[in-house]
User: Which sequence fits this backbone?
């Protein structure tokens, strides 16, 4: 996505040690004694991303207390669940690369990629049974349910050129933002934060997640694959309409709108052509303004924090979502 990697790295630096423990925990959880599975497990262990969701959980925890073993375990569950959704998404989108590496479906085949995602989910579910916290398990279960509902909602709106901004926000709220919200909520909840702070951090995560997904959808259309490190134009290929396209369809004159729809449905639309059209329609500017707005909403929810260090880190993380150069 079009963000400053250095700003993200700087923002999560206070929880680097915790993230290292999360990574080690994940590797332990997915280990298996059967050597025939080695190549698959090595792939999973070698594809950890920035671990943004665990980082947000740990930062929200840090605002109230030091991380406990349960924070590390829950953060591992969250990252494994996220990694599973990416494996499945790459199959759905026929993606060839992610995080500057070939996807599992590219290395092997879609069947193996799906099974790897299922394996991560099964191990995550198994660990969740050891938490001894029904409230945490309930949040995790509700979150994964919402993510699946969001993905199904997106599928139901494919090729719908009358989709509204409200429809789009509902989809990304469920498929992406709820996961960030749950990460922040759980970080504070497990640190014994007061109810108001837990609610505010949950709201911070939700607005952060919406801004994050809007930015990610923008770069999917006009970004550079060598910078993004993953296959782009996937939404266009699947005719999943995202905010820049939705806005353009709402402001273009009838003839231009018809031409855009035709280019999308016939598969002739290119990143260069769309960049030019979206710029002239003011759709890129509009999309960035919406990212700004949701980032601002997110940051306002941090006023509840008395810990200045945690508030600054979370603020910096939110601001890193805003595109740098587009």
Assistant:
């Amino acid at each position: 996505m079009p963000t400053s990697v250095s700003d993200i790295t700087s923002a999560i630096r206070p929880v680097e040690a915790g993230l290292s423990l999360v990574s080690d925990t994940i590797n332990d959880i997915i280990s298996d004694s059967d050597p025939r599975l080695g190549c698959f497990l090595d792939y999973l262990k070698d594809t950890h991303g920035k671990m943004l969701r665990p980082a947000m959980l740990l930062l929200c925890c840090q605002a109230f207390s030091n991380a406990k073993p349960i924070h590390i375990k829950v953060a591992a569950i969250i990252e494994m669940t996220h990694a599973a959704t990416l494996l499945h998404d790459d199959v759905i989108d026929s993606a060839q690369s992610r995080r500057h590496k070939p996807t599992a479906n590219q290395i092997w085949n879609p069947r193996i990629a799906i099974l790897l995602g299922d394996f991560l989910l099964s191990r995550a579910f198994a660990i969740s049974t050891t938490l001894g916290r029904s409230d945490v398990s309930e949040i995790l279960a509700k979150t994964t349910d919402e993510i699946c509902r969001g993905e199904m909602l997106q599928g139901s709106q494919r090729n719908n050129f009358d989709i509204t901004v409200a429809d789009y926000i509902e989809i990304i709220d469920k498929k992406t933002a709820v996961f960030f919200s749950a990460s922040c909520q759980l970080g504070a909840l497990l640190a014994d934060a007061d109810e108001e702070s837990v609610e505010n951090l949950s709201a911070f995560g939700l607005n952060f997640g919406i801004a994050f997904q809007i930015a990610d959808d923008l770069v999917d259309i006009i970004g550079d694959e060598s910078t993004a490190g993953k296959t782009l134009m996937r939404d266009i290929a699947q005719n999943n309409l995202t905010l820049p396209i939705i806005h353009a369809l709402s402001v273009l004159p009838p003839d231009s709108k018809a031409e855009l729809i035709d280019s999308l449905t016939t598969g002739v639309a290119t990143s260069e052509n769309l960049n030019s059209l979206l710029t002239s329609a003011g759709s890129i500017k509009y999309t960035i303004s919406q990212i700004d707005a949701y980032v601002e909403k997110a940051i306002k929810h941090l006023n509840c924090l008395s810990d200045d260090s945690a508030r600054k880190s979370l603020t910096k993380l939110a601001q890193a979502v805003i595109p740098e150069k587009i």
